[in-house]
Amino acid sequence: MYEGVLADLIDELGQLPGIGPKSAQRIAFYLLQAEEEDVKRLANTLLEVQERVKFCEQCGNVSEEDICRICRDPRRDPSMLCVVEESRDVIAIERTGEYRGRYHVLGGAISPIDGIGPEQLRVRELMQRLSDGAIEEVIIATDPNLEGEATATYLARALNPLGLTVSRLASGLPVGGDLEYADEVTLGRAFAGRRRVD
Amino acid sequence: MPTYRDEGVVLRTQRLGEADRIITFLTREHGRVRAVAKGVRKTGSRFGSRLEPFGRVDVQFYQGRSLDTVTQVETLHAHGPRLATDYARWTSGTAMLEATERLTPVDGEPVLPQYLLLVAALRTLDSQTHDAGLILDAFILRSLAISGWSPSFSDCARCGEAGPHRAFSVAGGGALCSACRLPGSAAPAPQTLMLLGALLSGDWARADDSDQRARREGTSITAALMTWHLERGLRSWPLVERV
Fold first, then answer.
1. Would you call B53 and A146 a contact, using CB atoms and an 8 Å cutoff?
2. Contact at 8 Å (CB) between A165 and A81?
3. What is the mean pLDDT of each run of 10 residues along chain A (198 residues)?
4. What is the ipTM of this complex?
5. Which of B10, B49, B241, B242 best probes binding to A when mutated, by most A CB atoms within 10 angstroms?
6. What topology does CATH give the domain B3-78?
7. Quick check: B5 contacting A, CB < 8 Å?
8. CATH number for region B82-239
């Protein structure tokens, strides 16, 4: 067994998500053999992230400024708002290049079994953003699992009386796959959300 | 290869690593089982949608040293997608799943009555034939009864004297006669005790006829009984939407 600062490093690395004891040990020995400059740069970056990265005051996305890059961008469509669970979802949607509106990050999905209700998410902030009437369409892009669907149901119920266009991301078959391998729930959703071909 | 097959209901899913999940099932023959489902968080997963909470599935496990692994799943009945479109029913159902997990603390110990109760309760919740809050309260009372903590809502819980009685004590096991009355006993409305008795015995005609006041008081008593026996409340209970 290791002792002292090396054991501490392995313990700390082992606390990270997805890093087991073996991986923690491997990373620790890599750092031990790495150039001093490289290790210092990594340590400084970790500290800087902790100090500089915060959450956008408008949308809740990660940002180094009070207002994030997307919320500051005047070319973005101010009438469209896409509601997502996590900041990682913003990146995934941005990669599509299909959406030019702004975002609202909830900070998770409603999960009663984990004690997370609407009050623990940024739902109140969402309702405040919608109060000035500038946003005309809200796209609910929560995860296509049960908690994401229930969160979408809750949001739709709260948003529909406001007279906005409220939509939910479509669910269906993955592009490039074979129909015979689709599971029954996904295939059922694809049928329910079928569209007219002109 | 040490594999086994069973029928079960998905109680809970927890994220594991990059794309895996730990799934907690209540199975018909093996009781509560916790198993790893690999790659189910990827959108291309073949059985990700089958392993969502509320799903009743036919599942094959590969026995592991600490956790088993899910190798095959077929859906028998997916209650989840319908429940998720009705927020009140979904929150009630979630409390049922959490209660089931808490009342079956030992992995691998068969609890067939609890399994059959859960399957029936989910079917009733999905069919929308009764109020979701009443179904949840009935489920909790009957689950406590299966665990050996059946409360009495009519006859005295201590001496058995025929009821109805006015006094009710959670710690005393239910309704108490004037001779057995414990200090600090509550005095719920007779309609409330009648409603709780109907929920415990499955008298839905009487339960459906109950008024809102009796339902509210009945829910408080159900919560107190559950907290007393489980030693702490359910996390999902305060988030259940009562219509």
1. yes
2. no
3. 88 89 93 94 94 93 94 94 96 94 96 94 94 92 92 95 92 81 81 86
4. 0.86
5. B49
6. OB fold (Dihydrolipoamide Acetyltransferase, E2P) (2.40.50)
7. no
8. 1.20.1440.120
